Amino acid sequence: MDAYEQITRNVSEVVTEDEVRALAESPDGKRAYVGYEPSGVLHIGHMLTATKLMELQDAGMDVTVLLADVHAYLNDKGSFEEIRDTAERMKAQFLAYGLDEEQTEFVLGSEFQFDREYVLDLHALELNTTLSRAERAMAEIKGGDSVKVSQAVYPLMQALDIVYLDVDLAIGGMEQRKVHMLARDVLPAIDEDAPTCMHTPLIADLSSGAGKMSSSTGTTISMEDSTKDIEEKVNAAFCPPTANPDPADDGTERENPVLQIFEYHVFPRFEQVVVERPEKYGGNLTYDDYASLEAELESGELHPMDAKTALASYLDELIAPGREKIRAQK
RNA sequence: CCGCUCUUAGCUCAGCCUGGCAGAGCAGCCGACUGUAGAUCGGCUUGCCCCCCGUUCAAAUCGGGGAGAGCGGACCA
């Protein structure tokens, strides 16, 4: 696999391909970043972008993880003290999940976002952005039930972070794409380069296969889940024997979240996946890549229940170190 | 600053006029059927009716005050 393929593996969107190809020419020392609002416990959404960061590290890139305490505050996620408290725990969980400590720099937003120069640049961006544009950019990520002025400032700070953290490649889930597009539009207004971005897919809701897995409603897999929690959640997941389920009765598109998790969480971290299967159903199955697993689920050779059992076991293995960390933190 | 509308189950809302057991759809949960889930069928759960004060035998419902949300207007020397 060449560097470009490795860097863009499993992403939904590359902006722009030419820019990433240029990065892939000499990835060593290039800097990628993701910003996260601190939350007490890593969930599967955090882990998805973290997996991508690990792949970028394997390709030779350095990684900055922004623990976006100021952003979380602006997004109505609680008091500053509470938020900063969780940031440190989050860092430990990322390391436990597998980010390389040598190649990862953790930065707290408040370390540089109050600098005079930063704030002046921020105001310059504000001057170049309409409220409705900022609001649209935030549509997918805002917390709370009404739009605050702080939430209009939020995406502009993300744009500036890319400049101040000296980032070559901005990573985020697909919910971040409008923010990143805003950054590409507005940064040239202060004579900065439009950032190169890649967006990871969003995992569908575990129980319905529709929309995106939400941390607030529905079922989410997080680092504090016990082995039993994971088994129960995965077993309850929507999983027709196909990668392309029929739409729901009301017409909404559905995905197969079990396959998605195999594709985006398990195969990037394991060379080989062994599905343990009772003798009466034919014994164990072994897969070296995601495509062959999907094909056999589709053909009926692999039964969804056996796939689920295997998925729960691999997920548990991925989460176990972080789970230990969380227990130690309490 | 002024005016109008809204606030009831996890969600969308009905009920308010004309006071009398707190409702529906969806979601959720439990079973049946499937070697998973979903679909289907059967059953079940769910409440600070935004808050306070008042009227009344009795208030989600009527009156007063307040809060939050949405919309409009005014001001622009």
Automatic annotation (TrEMBL):
A motif ('KMSKS' region) lies at residues 212-216. L-tyrosine binds at Y33, Y154, Q158, D161, Q176. Catalyzes the attachment of tyrosine to tRNA(Tyr) in a two-step reaction: tyrosine is first activated by ATP to form Tyr-AMP and then transferred to the acceptor end of tRNA(Tyr). One of its GO terms (cellular component) is cytoplasm. It is an enzyme of class 6 (ligase). Pfam families: tRNA-synt_1b (PF00579). The keyword ATP-binding applies. One of its GO terms (biological process) is tyrosyl-tRNA aminoacylation. NCBIfam families: PRK08560.1, tyrS. A motif ('HIGH' region) lies at residues 38-46. InterPro entries: aa-tRNA-synth_I_CS (IPR001412), aa-tRNA-synth_Ic (IPR002305), Rossmann-like_a/b/a_fold (IPR014729), Tyr-tRNA-ligase (IPR002307), Tyr-tRNA-ligase_3 (IPR023684), Tyr-tRNA-ligase_arc/euk-type (IPR023617), Tyr-tRNA_synthase (IPR050489). It catalyses: tRNA(Tyr) + L-tyrosine + ATP = L-tyrosyl-tRNA(Tyr) + AMP + diphosphate + H(+). The keyword 4Fe-4S does not apply. It comes from Halogranum rubrum. One of its GO terms (molecular function) is ATP binding. Keywords: Aminoacyl-tRNA synthetase, ATP-binding, Cytoplasm, Ligase, Nucleotide-binding, Protein biosynthesis. This is Tyrosine--tRNA ligase. Its main location: cytoplasm. Belongs to the class-I aminoacyl-tRNA synthetase family. TyrS type 3 subfamily. It is found in: Cytoplasm. ATP binds at S215. Its EC number is 6.1.1.1. The gene is tyrS.
